[in-house]
Design a protein that fits this description.
Elements (H helix, E strand, L loop, with lengths): L9 H8 L3 H15 L4 E11 L28 H13 L4 E6 L8 H14 L4 E5 L5 H10 L3 E3 L6 H4 L8 H12 L4 E3 L2 E3 L5 H13 L6 E6 L16 H14 L4 E4 L8 H9 L2 E6 L2 E2 L2 E2 L3 H11 L2 E2 L36 H13 L1
Parallel strand pairs: 1-2, 1-9, 1-12, 2-3, 3-4, 4-5, 6-7, 7-8, 8-9
Antiparallel strand pairs: 10-11
């Protein structure tokens, strides 16, 4: 029988993170083999269905309307366009499509109804469907589940302590509340964070404390390396070292043994050897495709070459959890409630975020 702990302390996690690297790798690989097939990796395709214009001030994000970046803004995609992209992803070996919209939170109405139809369409293609749409209510989560959603992504980003130095337009508690709303539906949870934003090691451990304390723990945990984008408050931060990524993946694997650990943003800065160490350390999921929302990602053909070199196989859809049933809109028993939840706006200011905002005004 496996035993998953939900009471890890920051000190315990730091002790794991700081172990001699070879010892850490061996322990993580041992845990990984106990709970997963070490030669199987889940492949997801991330699709930006609505790009740019977000009202949040996340210091890492080029989609924030207040910063001046070179991303091309796009309105919500059509269902037919999303279906075409999903079929392309399926043909290239992805088992999951994750749709991201640059929204602060989900709002009932025609656009959300359109997203629900996208979920129905992709689920009928026998692919896992994930969405990342910002904060959402319990009723909205249940409507997504009814449409056939497999997973909902809502990253914690960093520790609760460091969160206020990254984002000022929402609170850490809002993230936890949204995850709780997702848990009240039949949708699995995807939640992780970003390293290399100027945080301390204690903040990386703190994020893992928060994630591992969730009961149940997230079914998948993306570990992102910051991709510094010109025009964002974090544009001048140097890339995180591969050894930090390896240690973070290994520690996540030990602390959350049954979770799928996703090697996410920042892979273009990693060598194949570095990625191989991450797979050895317990990563068993990646995002494929040449773009992650707005930042570059390795070409899918490069990934398939790497898989062949390392002897890795792509995980088939619904191996971990059963495929959800899709309820057509005409048969839905759930209706929009017209909710207007009071998501938090903390109101404090972050110096580097304000500086980037002022710089954007001059550039425009």
């Amino acid at each position: 029988m496996s035993y998953t702990r939900h009471n890890w302390t920051k000190e315990e996690i730091l002790n794991i993170y700081n172990k001699p690297l070879m010892e850490l790798l061996y322990e993580a690989a041992t845990v990984h083999r106990k709970h997963h097939d070490p030669n199987t990796v889940q492949v997801s395709t991330l699709l930006s269905i609505k790009t740019g214009g977000c009202s949040e001030d996340c210091g890492y994000c080029p989609q924030a309307a207040r910063y001046h970046t070179d991303i091309e803004k796009n309105d919500l995609m059509s269902v037919s366009h999303v279906k075409a992209q999903a079929l392309r992803a399926k043909e290239s070996g992805s088992s999951r499509v994750c749709m991201g919209a640059a929204w602060r939170n989900v709002k009932d109405g025609p656009e959300f109804d359109q997203v629900l139809e996208m979920v129905r369409t992709i689920n009928k293609l026998d692919m896992e469907v994930c969405c990342t749409l910002g904060m959402l209510t319990e009723n909205q989560a249940k409507r997504l589940a009814e449409a056939g959603l497999y997973a909902y992504n809502h990253n914690l980003d960093t520790s609760e302590d460091y969160y206020k130095d990254v984002i000022s337009t929402r609170a850490f508690e809002d993230r936890l509340e949204t995850i709780d709303n997702v848990r009240k539906s039949n949708v699995t949870v995807c939640s992780g964070g970003i390293i290399g934003m100027g945080e301390k090691l204690e903040d990386r451990a703190g994020m893992l404390v928060a994630l591992s304390s969730l009961n149940p723990q997230p079914e998948s945990v993306p570990i992102n390396a910051l991709v510094a984008v010109e025009g964002t408050p974090m544009e001048d931060i140097e890339p995180v070292a591969i050894w930090d990524m390896v240690r973070m993946v290994a520690t996540t694997r030990i602390v959350m043994p049954e979770t799928q650990v996703r090697l996410s943003a920042g892979r273009t800065q990693m060598s194949r050897e570095g990625q191989a160490l991450c797979f050895l350390a317990g990563a068993n999921s990646i995002f494929a495709g040449d773009k992650l929302l707005t930042t570059p990602n390795p070409d899918v053909n490069e990934d398939m070459e790497m898989f062949a070199l390392l002897g890795l196989n792509s995980q088939k859809p619904f191996e971990k959890h059963a495929q959800p049933k899709t309820v057509e809109a005409s048969d839905s028993v759930l209706q929009a409630l017209g909710e207007k939840p009071k998501w938090t706006r903390p109101g404090h200011s972050i110096e580097r975020n304000e500086a980037a905002k002022a710089k954007a005004k001059i550039a425009r």
